[in-house]
Write a structure and sequence with these properties.
The protein is α+β, with helices and mostly antiparallel strands. The strands form 3 sheets. The chain has a 6-stranded mixed sheet. Strands 1-3-5-4-2 form a 5-stranded mixed sheet, covered by helices on one side. A 4-stranded antiparallel sheet has the order 8-7-10-11, with no helix packed on it. Strand 13 and strand 14 form a beta hairpin. The longest helix has 16 residues. The protein is globular, with a radius of gyration of 19 Å. The N terminus is likely disordered.
Length: about 230
């Protein structure tokens, strides 16, 4: 009986922490083979609205959630997305809730996509506060937050996790045509080399992120002031 109670308790916890990702609106289906799913620039007028994804329930596994969102987006041919905020009765916008949000899906012509803004993004994990150092300056990353640094081509950036047996990496951007994305994590995350929005460039507890997944994190995480 005790083992049965433990099993039921475990299942209840899993159900409470489960996150459902579903297509709740489809306006049209676009036929394209783009594997990426980038954040839509609000100024782009040529993007075609395709539909909407609903996300309900909280999950700590953001990579798994993004994988589900990516799969749903590709079902209708989307290559860009934007967060759809909930409006209050007074016309203001509800604060973002990671347990309940909607994402609008679009097809944006490739020539209209914004390549980069010449920045380095460093994301926290969803677990706990983390202390890091960037070029010998210390920062505290809160759970589900990120820092954004303007990069200078040719300058060396040293990122350290500031702990015993932690990781240190050095990167030197050649130009500002590509952004750089990293996540600081104490979790062991398997690299994904499919090119569909996974993780790569793993170095201990500093992980390089693919652009699609990083832009998703920049949407659901809070940017911290430098």
């Amino acid at each position: 009986m005790r083992n049965f109670a433990i099993i039921i308790s475990t299942l209840c916890v899993q159900l409470l922490s489960a996150q459902n990702v579903y297509l709740n609106k489809v306006e049209k289906v676009n036929d394209n083979k783009d594997k990426f799913l980038y954040k839509k620039d609000g100024a782009i007028a040529d993007a075609i609205y395709l539909g909407e994804i609903g996300v309900q329930g909280f999950s700590k596994d953001d990579a798994a959630v993004f994988s589900l969102i990516h799969k749903k987006a590709k079902e209708i041919g989307a290559n860009t997305f934007a967060l759809k905020p909930f409006d209050k009765i007074d016309g203001t916008v509800e604060p973002f809730n990671p347990a309940n949000y909607k994402i609008s899906l679009y097809y944006t012509p490739k020539e209209k996509l914004v390549v980069s803004d010449g920045a380095m993004y460093i994301f926290a994990s969803s677990e706990k506060d983390q202390k890091i150092s960037v070029n010998q300056k210390d920062y505290i990353l809160k759970p589900r937050s990120f820092l954004k640094f303007k990069i200078i081509p040719g300058q060396i950036y040293t990122i350290s996790t500031k702990k015993l047996l932690g990781s240190t990496i050095r990167v030197q951007p050649k130009d500002n045509n590509e952004n750089m994305y990293f996540q600081i994590s104490s979790l062991k995350i398997k690299s994904d080399t499919s090119g569909n929005g996974g993780l790569n460039l793993k170095s201990g507890d500093i992980i390089g992120l693919e652009k699609s997944y990083a832009e998703f994190l920049s949407t659901i995480y809070q940017e911290e002031t430098l």
